[in-house]
């Protein structure tokens, strides 16, 4: 009997590739949106988009000793440029800042899964896979905020890094229990996105350290 879906579409390599391009495009768009808030020119749009789109994955690959992904595949930079150009062409819109927040939420979830999955494919220990997922998802945003002069996501009490950690953790655990690559990836990304979405809609945040600040 011929399967309804090509089995090759469910391989870990295909899942990783699909998440990789999606994550790069979304994060590149958030970088371009950050440039839009500062009213930069098109070249700066492209720079913000590229460094945000590939920043986290670059750090991940350097740490796990893998070839830096975008150096060997020009399509990643092309995706960053296309996403940046799309943001430029859309122009100023009143919903632009909210779009940045929601795109960032999607990127955190997708790249949390991707970073953990790529580290797992390289034979890295499960706990470090989760760390790599968080770094992949968050480092590009840290660089974006630094360049844009915005408070870093690491210094905000709202749930951001935690969403990437949840996505990475769910993926690693699901894989450990033998769940198929596609369902594991979508389940993990959905969990991470749901947590970040809750923070955006209902203002969820992690508890702060108790007590008063002393010098």
From TrEMBL:
Main location: membrane
UniProt KW keywords: Cell membrane, Membrane, Transmembrane, Transmembrane helix
Domain Glycine transporter, chain residue ranges per copy: 19-90, 101-174
Bilayer-spanning residue ranges: 15-35, 42-59, 74-92, 99-117, 123-147, 159-180, 186-209
UniProt key word Signal: no
Keyword Secreted appears in the UniProt entry: no
Compartments, record wording: Cell membrane
Bilayer topology annotation: Multi-pass membrane protein
Family: Belongs to the UPF0126 family.
Protein name as it appears in the record: Trimeric intracellular cation channel family protein
Organism: Brevundimonas kwangchunensis
């Amino acid at each position: 009997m011929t399967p309804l879906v090509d089995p090759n579409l469910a391989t870990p390599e295909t899942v990783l590739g699909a998440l990789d391009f999606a994550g790069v495009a979304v994060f590149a768009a958030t970088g371009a949106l950050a440039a839009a808030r500062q009213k930069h020119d098109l070249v700066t749009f492209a720079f913000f988009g590229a460094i945000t789109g590939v920043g986290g994955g670059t750090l991940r690959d350097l740490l796990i000793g893998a070839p830096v992904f975008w150096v060997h595949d020009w399509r990643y930079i092309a995706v960053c440029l296309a996403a940046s150009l799309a943001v430029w062409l859309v122009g100023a819109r009143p919903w632009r800042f909210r779009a940045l927040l929601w795109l960032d939420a999607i990127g955190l979830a997708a790249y949390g899964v991707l970073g953990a999955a790529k580290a797992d494919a390289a034979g890295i220990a499960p706990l470090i896979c989760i760390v790599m997922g968080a770094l992949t998802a968050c480092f590009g945003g840290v660089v974006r905020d630094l360049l844009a002069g915005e408070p870093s996501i690491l210094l905000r009490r709202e749930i951001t890094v935690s969403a990437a950690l949840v996505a990475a953790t769910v993926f690693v655990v699901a894989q450990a229990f033998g769940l198929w690559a596609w369902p594991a990836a979508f389940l993990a990304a959905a969990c991470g996105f749901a947590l970040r979405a809750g923070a955006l809609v209902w203002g969820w945040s992690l508890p702060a350290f108790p007590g008063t600040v002393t010098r």
